[in-house]
């Protein structure tokens, strides 16, 4: 289940309802999908064939279509990252800078872990959202953030888009942000 860490105070927020309420206040959508649906062999697999990716999308088809219908997302795919990904370190370096998009950034984690660093309201400042399998997040358009892996360095996630072009990252220069 997702956990929040507020960077300025190191305060942690745990428990599905607390996390959901905190994120709702920050205009970030948080939901949870039932990972029991996924065949066991796909719950810890980070190098996926096209068939396995299609299988994951088909297992979660109802959840994907429900979310897409409510939020206007029109296309989706699967991203898998692990130490087997060519140039993972370079990729992560590229990821790890604050930016915005002109549409929501949506991730439904189906295996592994990941973390969103998000610029919250002025009273909160930056906060981390640590995500694991089953966690679904939508960071709204124009909200400054970045995404990266956690210490296990492996993740599989469904990404949903309105248009894939909307996913272009616009750098957000913020002297107040500290890694
Ligand atoms: Fe992003």
From TrEMBL:
Q: What is its EC number?
A: 1.13.11.54, 1.13.11.53
Which pathway features in its UniProt record?
Answer: Amino-acid biosynthesis; L-methionine biosynthesis via salvage pathway; L-methionine from S-methyl-5-thio-alpha-D-ribose 1-phosphate: step 5/6
- Which residues are annotated as site, described as May play a role in transmitting local conformational changes? 104
User: Binding positions for Ni(2+)?
Assistant: 99, 101, 105, 145
The reaction(s) this protein catalyses: 1,2-dihydroxy-5-(methylsulfanyl)pent-1-en-3-one + O2 = 3-(methylsulfanyl)propanoate + CO + formate + 2 H(+); 1,2-dihydroxy-5-(methylsulfanyl)pent-1-en-3-one + O2 = 4-methylsulfanyl-2-oxobutanoate + formate + 2 H(+)
Q: Which UniProt keywords apply?
A: Amino-acid biosynthesis, Dioxygenase, Iron, Metal-binding, Methionine biosynthesis, Nickel, Oxidoreductase
Q: Which cofactor does it need?
A: Fe(2+); Ni(2+)
Answer yes or no on keyword Iron: yes
Which superkingdom is the protein from? Bacteria
Q: Which residues bind Fe(2+)?
A: 99, 101, 105, 145
Cofactor binding note: Binds 1 Fe(2+) cation per monomer. Binds 1 nickel ion per monomer.
Q: What class of enzyme is it?
A: oxidoreductase
Q: Which Gene3D superfamilies match?
A: Jelly Rolls
Which Gene Ontology BP annotations are present?
L-methionine salvage from methylthioadenosine; L-methionine salvage from S-adenosylmethionine
SUBUNIT field? Monomer.
Q: Which family does it belong to?
A: Belongs to the acireductone dioxygenase (ARD) family.
What this protein is called in its record is Acireductone dioxygenase
Organism annotation:
Paenibacillus methanolicus
> Quick one: which gene encodes this?
mtnD
């Amino acid at each position: 289940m997702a956990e929040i860490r507020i960077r300025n105070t190191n305060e942690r927020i745990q428990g599905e309802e607390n996390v959901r309420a905190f994120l709702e206040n920050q205009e970030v959508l948080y939901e949870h999908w039932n990972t029991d649906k996924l065949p066991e062999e796909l719950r810890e697999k980070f190098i996926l064939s096209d068939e396995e990716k299609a299988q994951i999308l088909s297992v979660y088809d109802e959840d994907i279509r429900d979310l897409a219908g409510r939020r206007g997302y029109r296309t989706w795919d699967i991203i898998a990252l692990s130490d087997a990904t060519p140039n993972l370190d370079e990729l992560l370096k590229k990821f790890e800078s604050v930016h915005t998009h002109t549409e929501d950034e949506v991730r439904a984690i189906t295996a592994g872990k990941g973390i969103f660093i998000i610029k919250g309201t002025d009273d909160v400042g930056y906060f981390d959202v640590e995500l694991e399998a089953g966690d679904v997040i939508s960071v709204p358009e124009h909200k400054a953030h970045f995404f990266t892996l956690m210490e296990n360095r492996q993740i599989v996630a469904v990404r949903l888009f309105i248009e894939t072009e909307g996913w272009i990252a616009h750098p957000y220069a913020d002297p107040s942000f500290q890694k």
